[in-house]
Amino acid sequence: MIDVTANRAVRTYSRRIMAARVLWGCFQPLFRYSPRPFWGWRRWILRCFGAKVGPDAHIYPSARITMPWNLSLGAQSAVGDRAILYALGRIDIGPRATVSQGAHLCAGTHDHRRADRPLLTPPIEISADCWIAAEAFVGPGVLVGPGAIVGARAVVTKPVPDGVIVAGNPARTIGRC
Could you count the other beta carbons within 10 Å of the beta carbon of residue 115? Predict the structure, then answer.
């Protein structure tokens, strides 16, 4: 049986993290409404909030980023329009990796085996030279190996080996790069 009261009573975040989340919410309009070619401006805002952002990373203004201090973007990486980086835990995106439009990287879940459903934040790692295609979902704790491709609308809940192409729901290997 689910214990909703116990779940709501747990303080998931410190006061400092809660204050940072409120502050990030106040600054998001400066990120979201910046003109598309203002890549440096958005990199600067993310760095101000603790993100590690490599040179020449391109983050589109409509990308939704939760808790940027849990985000690392490698050099020349790209995060497309309407991508969701739900960074309750670490999300590391390697150099030259692309997260396409509408893709969802979710570094948070709950322990369904416990009645109070505590928050879990397993990290996500998107290695160098990967492509997460349009509207794909990458779940908590997933490692996508170097050079791998996650096909459009794929659902990835397990590690993706180096240099393979996965697609479908659940994602399965369909080829090699």
Answer: 13
Q: Are 123 and 138 spatial neighbours (Cβ–Cβ below 8 Å)?
A: no
Among 175, 150, 177, CA closest to 163? 177
Amino acid type, 62:
S
**Overall pTM surpassing 0.85 (yes/no):** yes
pLDDT tens by residue, 74-128: 999 999 999 999 999 999 999 999 999 999 999 999 999 998 899 999 999 999 9
Give the burial class of 156: count Cβ atoms within 10 A of its Cβ; 0-12 exposed, 13-18 middle, 19 or more buried: buried
Residue with tokens 């997260």: 99
Fold of 4-176: UDP N-Acetylglucosamine Acyltransferase; domain 1 (2.160.10)
Contact status, residue 139 vs residue 171, Cβ threshold 8 Å: no
